[in-house]
Amino acid sequence: MESLHNINLASLLDTFISLSTAFILGALIGLERQYRQRTAGLRTNVLVAVGAAVFVDMANRLDGHAGAVHVAAYVVSGIGFLGAGVIMKGDGNIRGLNTAATLWGAAAVGACAGADLIAEAALAALFVLAGNTLLRPFVNAINRQPIDDETSEVTYSVCVICDRQNQKATRDQLELLLEQANYPISDFDVHPFVQNEVQIFATLLSTSINSEVLDSVVEKLMAQTSVTQAFWSPSTTE
Fold first, then answer.
1. Structural domain boundaries of the chain?
2. Whole-number Å distance between alpha carbons of 57 and 115
3. What does the alpha-carbon distance between residue 84 and residue 106 come to, in Å, rounded to a whole number?
4. Which of the listed residues 118, 125, 145, 234 has the most CB atoms within 10 Å of its CB?
5. pTM for this structure?
6. Is residue 208 within 8 Å of 149, Cβ to Cβ?
7. Percentage of the residues of the chain whose pLDDT score is greater than 70
8. Cα distances (angstroms) measured from residue 216 to each of 40, 118, 167
9. Is the dihedral of CA 56, 61, 64, 70 positive or negative?
10. Structurally, what CATH architecture does the domain formed by 155-235 represent?
11. What is the pLDDT of the chain when averaged over all its residues?
C-alpha cells in the first residue's frame, strides 16, 4: 500500500510540468540535430533531457534539494559515458565531440527542469541552440581560412598505399623519413585496400608542421616502386 500512499496529486502535477518542459526543450535541441543529420538526433536528445529530469525530480521528492543536488552530480558523470559513445576516432579524425557536448547540454536542461527551475531550463536550451546555430557561420568562416602550418595545433596524418607484400618495408621507410624530419608519430593504422594493396596511416603528434617537409617525405615515398600513392592531410574536424 506504500505506492498508493505516495500518490500526491500536487506533486504529480509538478512532476508532469517538469517532464513536459524537459520533453519540449529536449525536442527543440534534438530537432536542430536531426535536421543536420547528426548521430544523436530528436529522440536521443529528448530521452537524455527527460531521463535527467526524472532522476533529479525523483531525488527532489524523496530527499529535498540536497538529494537533487547529489543526483545531479551523478547525472553529469553518467552523461559523460553516453557522450563517449558518440565520439569516434579514425584516420586522424575525431568526430562526434559537438554531438557529445550537445547531449551534455540536453542533460543540463533536463536537470534544471527536474529541479523545478523552468525558466533556467528554457534559458539553457536557448544557449545550447545558439551554440549549434548562431556560431556555425563563424566556425565556417574560420575553417575556410588557410591553415597556418607553424602555429596550428591540428592533427596531421600521412597516408601511404602500397603492395601488401611490402607493407612492412614501406612502414619502416615512412617511420624513418618522419623520424629524420623530427615529426614524432602517435599512432600507426593499417587498412586493407583494393586487391593486394593496403593503406598505412601515420598520425603525427600535435606539433608545428612545415608543409614543405611533408611534401618532401611524400615525394620520397612515391619514389618507391611498391608505393602507388602517398599524401598527407591535416584534420580539423570535431
1. 2-143, 155-235
2. 6
3. 15
4. 125
5. 0.61
6. yes
7. 85
8. 41, 59, 20
9. negative
10. 2-Layer Sandwich (3.30)
11. 83
Give burial (CB, 10 Å; 0-12/13-18/19+) of 134.
Answer: exposed
Outline where DSSP puts E strands in 151-196.
155-163, 185-192
Buried b (16+ CB within 10 A) or exposed e, 191-230: eebeeebbbbbbbbeeeebeeebbeebbebbeebebbeeb
Q: DSSP string covering 48-67, please? A: HHHHHHHHHHHHHHHHHHHH
| C-beta of residue 116 within 8 angstroms of C-beta of residue 53 | no
Q: Tell me how far apart the terminal alpha carbons of the chain are, to the nearest angstrom.
A: 53
Asked if 177 and 139 touch (Cβ cutoff 8 Å), the reply is no
**Mean pLDDT for the stretch of residues 50-78:** 88
Please name which of 210, 202, 154 lies closest in space to residue 181, comparing C-alpha atoms.
Answer: 210
The grid coordinates listed for 5 are 500512499
Asked if 176 and 186 touch (Cβ cutoff 8 Å), the reply is no
Residue count of the chain, please give it.
238
8-16 CB contacts, 8 Å cutoff, 24+ apart? 11/61, 14/57, 14/116, 15/57, 15/61
What pLDDT does 92 receive?
Answer: 46
Q: How much is the average pLDDT of 184-205?
A: 84
Query: Is the predicted pLDDT of residue 8 greater than 90, yes or no?
Result: no
Cβ distance 223 to 79 under 8 Å? no
